[in-house]
Design brief:
This protein is α+β, with helices and mostly antiparallel strands. Helix content is 29%, strand content 36%.
Length: 164
């Protein structure tokens, strides 16, 4: 089940954030970020959701406005899946859910600003779900074990905005 996150979920979200941010190999977040700052970063967005099953919270994602003003019709999202739930299609389910939620919030498109080339599973999944790589940023991320890696900007239109 995927549902909106509430304050009562924050203690369950924190270990997911902590472990991913500490690894420092997917998100451009200070690996030493503290709990309060991490939760504010993740949950203080347009919307935050959790995925849960009988084990509890096994994933989370946020939706935020990617740019202000004239760019406010495009959202950005971040996703984290608990290690025990990886490889079971949860990231795909959360991404599909986030597209529906983004449409309901009035967004016209979704853009991922920094998908690391080293995160081949995510790149493959986002392409499978209809995202297009619209740009490459060379040496965009200092990966802890691979050195500098490229990052992709990926985009998907959520509604048809072409004039009739």
């Amino acid at each position: 089940m995927i549902r909106k996150a509430g304050a009562a979920d924050f203690d369950a979200i924190w270990p997911l954030l902590r472990d991913v941010f500490r690894a420092g190999d997917t998100y451009a977040v200070d690996p030493a970020i503290g709990k309060e700052d991490a939760l504010r970063y993740w949950t203080g967005r347009a919307a935050c959701f959790v995925a849960e099953d009988t084990r509890g919270i096994i994933g989370t994602y946020y939706i935020k406005t990617n740019q202000a003003g004239g760019g406010a019709h495009i959202c950005n999202c971040g996703y984290i899946v608990a290690p025990a739930a990886r490889g079971q299609g949860l990231a795909a389910q959360m991404c599909v859910h986030s597209q529906k939620a983004a449409r309901a919030l009035g967004y016209h498109a979704m853009q991922f600003n920094l998908v690391l080339a080293s995160n081949t599973g995510a790149v493959r999944l986002w392409h499978r779900l209809g995202f297009t790589t619209v740009g490459t940023i060379p040496d965009a991320f200092a990966h802890p074990s691979q050195g500098f890696v490229d990052a992709y900007v990926m985009h998907k239109r959520l509604i048809d905005t072409a004039p009739e």
